[in-house]
Q: What sequence folds into this?
């Protein structure tokens, strides 16, 4: 059998695949510095290891569209391009397990990927996909012409601006300015690009050859400029440089994020004045990317899933064989129950280089298990140092192969249970959770100068303390905050006389006080501690008799986090009252960024048995009401009889030996010894 392209995530089955794009520049460099890092008190800025890794264009491309845009199957330094996620399993709870068909990045130690580490790595194991940066910056310096102000000694072949535009930064290959730091007209030096088509540049990524470009020479300004003809230039953004103490091979991320709305064919970065220096050094630039924002949102294909990024597991010892807890042998060193043409197919899994697994090595405190490698041996097993960076070597050139878990979100699970009970064919419906409408019942409030009461859109909201109560229903304002010293509050929403509304739940958001101290001389910032923790919700038809709708206890938040709270049923009232009892241990305030009531879109359905017929249903009914992959009904028990060989005598008995190959017995459920 062969694998099948399927870009509909709702109908995935084992053996399907879809393409996904991986984007990162960071694995090419020792560390990353950007202008938002914090000064260390010595008038320069720290360099921090930062890894930004983005998945985009998931399940939208065809084989033909990605034919020339794939990540190298053998080895890659760039880690940019397309790869396949192959569906290897669908769990009974609906989870879809997908594994990348190749390593998608190299040169990064495993400890930088691992969620148990402290690096905040490129790919934290077990991380929600939605927690990753979703703004993709695409390098636009392709297919056009480099342009520059001057070069050292007028030597274009050795120091021309074209040297800064290539596949990656190369030490010793650079553009050098014609003027030196401190020269009178040094602020006239620039480098840029004439693009094939007009673009809007928002970010510039650069690597410098000479280390002390800001620390010694005091270069403090950069200017991003645009032009339509290459002669007349306008200023898009002036940027204060806040990075320094630079070593070699450091990636500098310059986020201009200007508000100039138009695209232009010419863009350049001009350098500001710098201090005079005795050595009369020019500025030396290894590499430059000028980037446009490609997308600002997570792929819509994932709206019905909670996607988790992790990595594959393995056995911790070479001779272990617990297939169920060993994903490498269960999924890769296998034929997926006949889906693959052969076990561990190198033409599918691209196993020339080994892959990190998510399994610490047995008896090695800093070791991690790697699998595959050796030019395509799926069964290969080895252990490497989890802290070491591995280069381009077939034996130890270890790469990262992600596993994606698509967890269905608020969606009726597949009815995978199909029974014939006493002549009655039935299926077991797993039911579904309640889903709220995306639009709230309360339109956005605006600033009306209110303190503890505000009436807008015929809706009145009151709070028992605090001020600017209108902020509760404005998702773009800063947070509503209680009065100082009040860590509880009652918030009442009156929808208006004769206006009873059916509500299925509510949405709440928290974002407040990350850098604010809660009281004089306090040492702990308010951060998440002002977030509401315990509260009750009441409803009333007239305001004189209140019905308890629900109690919430022990709710914890992250900064800028929104939560959806479903009631499990619909309630209909004119007035709703939120009684916030306590926060998460702050002594000064309780804060709420946003609140709104929502009606139900889909009601909760409890699991139930559904009778189908008294005769065997048709294949169409089985697929729609029972098991979508009807091939599992064709799988029959198979008895493998194997003869053991005499080994030795033991007292009055004898010893017989038999070797079992678990790679060919992955569905073995019973073992008889006779």
A:
């Amino acid at each position: 059998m062969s694998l099948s392209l399927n870009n509909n995530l709702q109908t995935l089955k084992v053996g399907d695949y879809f393409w996904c794009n991986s984007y990162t520049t960071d694995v090419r460099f020792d560390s990353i510095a950007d202008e938002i890092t914090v000064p260390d008190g010595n008038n320069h800025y720290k360099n921090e290891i930062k890894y930004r890794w983005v998945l985009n264009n998931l399940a939208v491309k065809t084989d033909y569209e990605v034919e020339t845009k794939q990540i190298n199957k053998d080895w890659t330094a760039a880690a940019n391009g397309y790869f396949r996620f192959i569906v290897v399993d669908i769990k009974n709870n609906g989870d879809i397990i997908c594994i990348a068909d190749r390593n998608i990045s190299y040169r990064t130690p495993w400890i930088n990927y691992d969620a148990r580490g402290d690096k905040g790595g490129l790919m934290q194991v077990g991380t929600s996909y939605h927690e990753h940066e979703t703004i993709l910056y695409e390098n636009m310096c392709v297919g056009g012409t480099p342009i520059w102000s001057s070069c050292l000694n007028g030597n274009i072949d050795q120091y021309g601006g074209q040297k800064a535009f290539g596949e990656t930064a190369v030490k010793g290959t650079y553009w050098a300015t014609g003027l030196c730091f401190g020269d009178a007209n040094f602020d006239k030096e620039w480098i840029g690009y004439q693009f094939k088509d007009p673009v809007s540049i928002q970010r510039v990524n650069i690597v410098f050859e000479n280390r002390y470009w800001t620390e010694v020479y005091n270069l403090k300004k950069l200017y991003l400029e645009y032009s339509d003809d290459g002669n007349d230039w306008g200023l898009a953004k002036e940027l204060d440089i806040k990075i320094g103490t630079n070593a070699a091979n450091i990636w500098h991320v310059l986020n201009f994020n200007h508000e100039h709305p138009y695209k232009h064919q010419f863009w350049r970065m001009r350098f500001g004045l710098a201090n005079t220096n005795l050595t009369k050094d020019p500025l030396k630039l290894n590499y430059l990317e000028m980037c446009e924002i490609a997308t600002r949102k997570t792929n819509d294909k994932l709206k019905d899933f909670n996607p988790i990024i992790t990595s594959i597991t393995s056995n911790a010892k070479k001779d272990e064989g617990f297939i169920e807890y060993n994903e490498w042998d269960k999924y890769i060193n296998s034929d997926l129950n006949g889906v693959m043409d052969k076990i561990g197919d190198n033409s599918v899994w691209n196993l020339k280089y080994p892959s990190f697994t998510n399994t610490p090595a047995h008896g090695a405190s800093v070791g991690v298990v790697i699998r595959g490698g050796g030019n395509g041996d799926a069964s290969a097993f080895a252990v490497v140092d989890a802290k070491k960076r591995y280069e381009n070597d077939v034996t130890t050139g270890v790469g990262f192969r992600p596993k994606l878990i698509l967890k269905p979100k608020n969606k009726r699970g597949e009815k995978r249970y199909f029974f014939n009970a006493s002549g009655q064919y039935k299926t077991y419906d797993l039911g579904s959770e309640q889903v709220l409408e995306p639009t709230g019942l309360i339109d956005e409030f605006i600033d009306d100068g209110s303190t503890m009461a505000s009436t807008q859109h015929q809706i009145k909201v009151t709070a028992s303390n605090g001020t600017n109560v209108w902020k509760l229903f404005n998702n773009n304002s800063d947070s509503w905050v209680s009065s100082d010293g009040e860590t509880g509050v009652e918030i009442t929403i009156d929808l208006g006389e004769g206006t009873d509304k059916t509500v299925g739940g509510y949405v709440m958001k928290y974002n407040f006080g990350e850098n604010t101290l809660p009281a004089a001389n306090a040492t702990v910032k308010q951060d998440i501690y002002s977030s509401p923790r315990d509260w009750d919700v009441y409803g009333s038809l007239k305001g004189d008799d209140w019905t308890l709708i629900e109690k919430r206890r022990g709710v914890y938040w992250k900064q800028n986090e929104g939560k959806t709270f479903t009631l499990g049923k619909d309630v209909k009232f004119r007035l709703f009252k939120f009684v916030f009892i306590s926060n998460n241990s702050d002594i000064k305030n309780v804060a709420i960024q946003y609140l709104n009531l929502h009606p139900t879109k889909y009601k909760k359905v409890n699991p139930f048995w559904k009778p189908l017929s008294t005769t065997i249903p048709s294949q169409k009914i089985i697929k729609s009401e029972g098991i979508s992959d009807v091939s599992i009904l064709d799988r029959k028990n198979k008895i493998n009889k194997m003869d053991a060989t005499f080994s030795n005598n033991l007292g009055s008995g004898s010893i017989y030996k038999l070797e079992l190959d678990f790679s060919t017995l992955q569905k073995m459920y019973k073992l008889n010894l006779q």
